[in-house]
């Protein structure tokens, strides 16, 4: 701990501020409606919660569903004994009992996650689906149902949103440490889950779900026989991954003794170079995740897993998989680092996520596997060459449900900007030169009406293309990186980019002048300039009324120019010589994210986009990197957040 930094003491709220917080959570306003104006209500709320913000929020989550004031009295009676409030933890029990049955299992699942860990909601929902917690709804995918469940838990104050994406959708969530202690006890008492740290598991015969958390030692000793085990979840600290192994048995024996009822295997950081061929005999397996591992390959028997829904092998060395694997009709999500995607012709109508794929050389416009994956919502391809560009271009015409698209290669198609099939696209990340731009620039076709996030790298665009992008009605975040724009002057046209909030320009070495036209980018709040070494002129920044922050990396000269011209604008500038956050460990999607603990000052690490509703895997330059764990600490009752640079 740094002795020069004074820790921030978080105190409980007084009655006035507690009432304001409660009313905002229940009524969406500072003041309650007339029928709930009774001062006695808020006196009881203050006594029961003791002013603890978390207790107020969770109690508000219970009472907001009670539409008749007399129902509030019933709740207060349950939280009192002989006229005196029960301990605060009784609020957690009441909130849990108030959950509908289908949410209780989802909430208890947070016990499988270590304390003080931030969670990517996509992965959490995929696990819920594999466990069978979700009740299907007509005209909704199970993923949509899962996010509805998560939003319900958030609205009840049991789960906290740590970060949202540019569309306002949930990007990262966490459970408070006080609630984590409660849910862990509840999961253990109800035999929902067994948590293994260092002590032995007392009764392996009764265990249905086993969570292994190991952040101190490098070995785990657990019995080799769990006759009723359905889920195995292992999470190893980053500094233990080089030596993390099961020491009670060999991995080859793991699958045989655990296999009969296993539905979920999720091993994060456990070192194993190969999976035994017996993995193919776990016929009920729905979720197989082996991440942050030295895994070299997958046995051909994996194609026997007819019920497999999710395969997650990010941050491994797996580059190939048996062609028969792509005949598993139950597949919903396949996530890898760089896995070869061969020609295949079996319709995969349930497949929604395809991440970290590399096209095989046999692709052509007549035979392309994407033609048989028409329900994809999220697609990430790298290694695209001229051989594949036409095939990808034709496939995009059929992918009408696509919401997230991440392409990387030497040459990329550009028709995603004008195809009607891309009308649902919300996130677009392109790393490579775009072909066919001339035809696109001459077209007046309406482009990407729902696009929210656009990242371009090495695209070699012209001012004419920027003028086309200016018409995108929903674009909120744009990044132009690595020579994606090669002209000396970049003009944001008048009244263009009406929805843009976050703009990043990085390594545009030809750029000398940045001009913001009248009425352009009226909503921009953050401007990030990095490595634009020849930029000397900035015009129009002072007209941006909502601009809160200008971040400059290694651009001291332009900062001095702004200081001389506009002191008010200069006060919004952050001059940085190097990125301040943990840039050595790029964080993308797929793992739990742990927190960085710095005494008295807590910074949240920005994580590249992972969509909340559509499995938008890995915003950032392609190929993707899997998530390293990052630890963040937060104090009871409140969050301290500083924006990442």
TrEMBL record:
Record-annotated Disease resistance R13L4/SHOC-2-like LRR domain positions: 260-554
Annotated ranges, domain Disease resistance protein winged helix: 116-182
Keywords, sorted A to Z: Plant defense, Repeat
Classification via InterPro entries: Apaf_helical, Disease_R_plants, LRR_dom_sf, LRR_R13L4/SHOC2-like, P-loop_NTPase, WH-like_DNA-bd_sf, WHD_DRP
PANTHER family hit by this protein: DISEASE RESISTANCE PROTEIN RP, NB-ARC DOMAIN CONTAINING PROTEIN EXPRESSED
GO terms, molecular function: ADP binding
Single biological process term from Gene Ontology: plant-type hypersensitive response
Domain of life of the organism encoding this protein: Eukaryota
Protein name: NB-ARC domain-containing protein
UniProt keyword Repeat, yes or no: yes
